[in-house]
Amino acid sequence: MANLLVDERDVQFVLYEQLKVEDLCQIAKFGEFSPEVFDMVLDAARKLAENELWPANADGDKIGVHLKDGQVRVPESFHRIQRLYCEGGWPSLSIDQESGGQGVPAVIGCAATECMIAANLGFMGYPGLTIGAARVLEKFGNPEQQSTYMEKLVSGEWCGTMCLTEPQAGSDVGALRTKARLNPDGTYSITGSKIFITGGDQDLTENIIHLVLARVEGAAAGTKGISIFIVPKKRIENGRLVDNDVTTVAVESKLGLHASATCALNFGERDNCVGYLIGPENSGMSIMFHMMNEARLLVGLQGLALASAAYMHSVRYANERLQGPHFSAIRDPDSPKVPILEHPDVRRMLMWMKSVTEGMRSLLYYVAKCVDLAECSTDRNDAAKYRGIVDLLIPICKAWSTDIGFRVTELAVQIHGGYGYCNEYPVEQFLRDVKITSIYEGTNGIQALDLVGRKLRMNQGALFQTFIGEVSKLVARVNENPRLKPIAARVDEAKSHLIEATVYFAQKAMSGEHAVPVLYATPYLELFGDLTIGFMLLWQAEIADEKLQAMYANAGAGTPEKQKELAESDREAAFYLGKIASAEFFSQSVLSLAQGKAKAIMQSGTGFLELPKEAFLRI
Amino acid sequence: MANLLVDERDVQFVLYEQLKVEDLCQIAKFGEFSPEVFDMVLDAARKLAENELWPANADGDKIGVHLKDGQVRVPESFHRIQRLYCEGGWPSLSIDQESGGQGVPAVIGCAATECMIAANLGFMGYPGLTIGAARVLEKFGNPEQQSTYMEKLVSGEWCGTMCLTEPQAGSDVGALRTKARLNPDGTYSITGSKIFITGGDQDLTENIIHLVLARVEGAAAGTKGISIFIVPKKRIENGRLVDNDVTTVAVESKLGLHASATCALNFGERDNCVGYLIGPENSGMSIMFHMMNEARLLVGLQGLALASAAYMHSVRYANERLQGPHFSAIRDPDSPKVPILEHPDVRRMLMWMKSVTEGMRSLLYYVAKCVDLAECSTDRNDAAKYRGIVDLLIPICKAWSTDIGFRVTELAVQIHGGYGYCNEYPVEQFLRDVKITSIYEGTNGIQALDLVGRKLRMNQGALFQTFIGEVSKLVARVNENPRLKPIAARVDEAKSHLIEATVYFAQKAMSGEHAVPVLYATPYLELFGDLTIGFMLLWQAEIADEKLQAMYANAGAGTPEKQKELAESDREAAFYLGKIASAEFFSQSVLSLAQGKAKAIMQSGTGFLELPKEAFLRI
Fold this sequence. Notes:
Chain A has 619 residues and is α+β, with helices and mostly antiparallel strands. Chain A has helices spanning 8-18, 35-53, 55-63, 76-87, 106-119, 121-140, 143-155, 284-320, 344-376, 380-420, 427-434, 444-455, 462-478, 485-510, 515-519, 521-555, 560-569, 571-589, 594-603, and strands at residues 66-68, 71-73, 159-163, 179-182, 188-198, 208-216, 226-232, 234-237, 240-243, 246-251, 262-267, 274-278, 322-325, 337-339. The first copy, chain A, has 3 domains: 8-155, Butyryl-Coa Dehydrogenase, subunit A, domain 1 (Orthogonal Bundle), CATH 1.10.540.10; 159-283, Butyryl-CoA Dehydrogenase, subunit A, domain 2 (Beta Barrel), CATH 2.40.110.20; 287-603, Butyryl-CoA Dehydrogenase, subunit A, domain 3 (Up-down Bundle). Helices cover 57% and strands 12% of the residues of chain A. A 5-stranded mixed barrel of chain A has the order 4-5-12-7-6. In chain A, strand 4 (179-182) and strand 5 form a beta hairpin. Chain A is globular.
C-alpha cells in the first residue's frame, strides 16, 4: 500500500530542513541520538502504522467496543496491534530513560505519533492516555508508586486513564463531587462517578491505572480542594491483583472513535475502592496543569494527523478519478476526461487542505521542539523563552488544529463526492473520528479563554511580544527576497491586525469591560492561529526558495521555461515549488481576511449578552 | 414534546410580516386560499412532523435500510408514517389542482416541508423525489403517461425516483452510458447501470416510477444526446403489474441518512426492461433543467431544516444545562451555576446559528414566493423579473444553505460538548444527515460554476443588476433609520465588495482568462451568499424595529430602562429584539469579512493550476 497517511517528504522537510532537529543531538540528554536513529524510529513507526494499525482502523470503526458482563471488549484485531505496539517499545518512546523509557526528543515522538494516529486514532487513545498517566507518576509520584506502576505502564503491560469529567461538571472541573476519605493506613476510599473516560475499561491489558480527581472530605469547594489519586482497576495485595471496586457502568455510543472505549465508571459502589494520593492533598489541579501542555499538544496532533490522512487520500482520489473534460475544453464532449485534480475547484480545495496541513505540521513539530529546548536548555533565559512559546501556542495547537482538521476532513468528503459519503471510503470515518478533538481535553472555547485570559497576560504580555518578535524577524529577512516579498507583506499585515485586536482586548480588560475579550476569545484565537500558520508557511517558503534557486543554478535553468521543465521532471523541485505555493495560497486566501476578522472582533458589541433568553427561543 | 424543529414564530414572521404571502390569495390561481387555510396547512404539517415523523427519525438512523433477496426494506416505523403522509394528502401539496394536487403556493409548501424535513430527512427523500417525478410528467408527459402515472404518484400510492448518476459519470452527466433501443411498438429497451439513486428501491409502495436518463442508440455524445424515460419497477400489462427487469444491486452504507435507500440499479439485466420516452428524443437534459430550480431549492431547504432543528435543540440544551458560574463571578467557587446559554462563548455560537438560520429561512421562502410570482404574474415584465431572481439565487439557496447548514450542526455538537458526540442526543445525526446536501443535486462546486458561468451572464448581467438594485433600495430606505443605519452601512459595503469581485470576473472573462472565475467561483458564491443573507436580515430588522417602536409607544416605554423591562416581560418584544440582534450580529461578524473575501478572490493567482501533480503528493 502506498503511504496515504503522512507525507514523509514533508516530515523530513520540517524536521531537518526547517527545525534542524539534528541540533538536539548536541544536547547532553539526547547525546546518544543521531539523525540516523531518528529516521529509524520514524521508519519503524511508519511501518507499524501502515502495516498494522491502518488495517485495523476500519475494523475498529465497524465492530467497535462492547460492554458485556461488566467488561469492555475491544475488536479482536486490536489485541494484535496492542501486542505489536508494546513489542516495538512504543509506549515508552518519549518517557525519560531514567524512568525506563527511550527518551527520544518530544519532536521526534510527535512525528512518530502523527503517522500512528493517522492510521488509527481509535487505538492510539489507549496508549496516549497511558503515557499521560506515566508522566504524572514520573514527575509527581513517590518512589513506591513509581516502582509499583511505572514499569508496567511504560512497557504497555498496563494502561492508564485520566478521570476528570463528571456528569454535572464538564468544562467546570471545579464542580466535581467524587470523594476521597482518608483511611487509617494512609490510603483513601474513593466514591463517585466519572463519565467520558477514554479507555476507562478494555480487555487489552490485565490492569488499568486510573488517575482520578476527587475531593478529600472537608476540602475547599472549587478547584482548590481537588486532589489526584491513583486508583487501579485491580490493586496489588500480597503480590496478587484483586478487584478494586471500579465498575464500568456504560460505554458511550458515539459519532466516531467507535474503537475507543468511552466509559462511565463508578468508584466505590461497594465502598471498597482504594486510592493512593499523588503529591500533597489539594494539589490535583496543579499536577493536572503540568500535564496539560503535553495532552493538548497531543490532541492538536490528532487534528493534524486526521487532516493529513484525509488530504493524502483526497489527492490520490483526485489523481485517479477521471471525470469531465479540462475546463478549457468544457464545451467539447469528445475531449478526453481528466483527473479531477485538474478541475480548478477541486485543486483549490486541495491547495487549501495542503497548505493548512503543512502549516499545522510545522506548528506542532515546532512547539514540540520548543518543549525539548525548554526542558534541556542550560541557559535559563533560553529555557524561559521556549517555555513561553509553548505556553502561548498550546491553545492554538489544540484548537486551531482540531477545528481546521475537521474542516479538512469535511473537504475530503466533498472531493470524494457521493463516494465520500459512503463507508466504503475511509474519509467519512476521518470526519467522524476527528470531531471529538474539538471537544475533549478542554473544548476549543476553553482553549480560547486560556489564550486570552491566561496566556496573553503571562509575564505582562511578554510571551506575546516574543512571538510577535519572531514573526517580525522572519518578515524582515524574507522581505529581502523579491520573489517572496508579497507573501511576507501579507504575513506582516496580518500581524498588525492581530496586534490591533490584542491591544483592543487589553484596553477593554483595563477598563473593566471583561465581557469583550471573553466573548470574542474564539474568533481571536482563529485570527492568532491564521497568523501563526502564515508565519510557519512563510518560514518554509524561505527555505524552499533557497533550495530551489540552488537547484536551478545547478541545472543551469535560468529561464522560466527551463525552470518549469525542471520542476516537471524533478520531484524535489516540484516539492519545493509546492511549498512556496502553500505559503502563497494561504497568505492570499486566508490572511487576506485578517483585517476583517480583527474588525469583526473590535466592532462587535456585547449587546446580545443582554438579550432575554426568549429572543433565542420561545422556550 | 416542545417543538424543537422549527421556530414557529419565525415562520409566521417571514410569511406574513416580511413576505406578506396573504397577497398571493389575490392571484386567481390561489384565489381559494386564505391565511387561515395556510395556517391550517402549516399546523397540520407541524403536527405530523412532531408527532409522527420525528419519533421515527432515530429509528430510521439506527435500523436503516436493508437489501434482502433483491428487495430493499425500510424500518417498520416508516410504513406507518408513509401511510399517514399519504392520508394527509402531503404528496400532492404543491402539485397543481388540474393535475390532481392541492396547488398550495410554493412558499407555503416550502414552510410546510421545512418542518417535516427537520423531523425526518431520511423519510422525506422518498416523497421529495416522487414530487419531482410527478412534476416532470405534469409538464412533459403525454396524456396517456399522465393518466397512467400521475394519480398514483400524486396520491403517494407509488413513489418516483430520478436516475441520473452512473459510476463513471458523476457531476459529468454527459458521460452517461445507459442505452435505449427503440422497439417496434414505440417503447424503448433500456440497459445500463445507475448509482446513488435515492429511493431506488423500497417496500413502502407497490411500484416505483424511475425517470431514467439514457442515450438512444446513435444519439450524439455528451449532454445533447440524452433522453429521459419512464421506467417503472413494475410495468402495467393487461391491467396487472409485472416485473420490468430493474434489479437493485446494492444499497450504500453511508455516513448518514441511513433510512434513505441509496441504491445501485441495473436496468435490463435480462434484456427485458421497457422504458417510455418523455417528450422528444434528446430532450432529456432540457427537461431535467426545468426541474432543477425546484430540486435545488428543496435541497437548500434541507440545509435550512437541519440547521433549524440543530439550533433549536442547542438553545434548549444551553438553557437547561447548568455549568460553571457566570463569567463575571468566575473566581468565586460558591457562586451559583448558570445555564451555559449565559456563557459568552456559547451565546456567541448560538447567535451565529440563529442569525444564519433565520437568514436562510428568509432567503428560501423569499425565493419560493418568487417562484409563485414568476408563474402567476400576468405582467410579463414582473414574471421575468421574478424568474430572474429565482434563477440567480437558486445556486445560493442550494450551496450556501447546505454549507452553512452543516456548519450549524457542527456547532450544535460543539455546544452539547461530550454529549453532542454521543448518539443519545440527536445533534450528531443532524450533522451526519445534512452532509449529503452539499454533494447531491449538483455538488456545491457545480452550483458555484452555475452561478458564475451561467447566472451572472444571463441577459447580459441583468439578473445581477436587478438583485443589486433590490439591495440598494432596501439600504436607502433603512439608512433613514438611525437605529439601523450602521447595519445598513455594512450591508452596503458588502454590496460594493461583491460588485468589485463581479466586475473583476467579467473583466477576466472578457480578456479570455476564464481560469480565474472558474477557480474562485466557490469563494465568490460564499461572498454572494453572505450579502444575500445580510440583505434578508436587514429587511427583517427594518420590520422588527417598526413593530418594536410601536410596542414601546403603546406601552409608553420612552426610556431604555422601560424598553428593557418590556422586552423582558413581553415575548413579542423579545422576539423583535432578537431579530434586530441577528441582523446586527451577522453584519458585524460575517459582513465585516466581505472586503477580505473580495480581496482574496481578486489578488489570488491561478499559478497553482500549473503546479505539477508531484507538488501535491509523491504519488
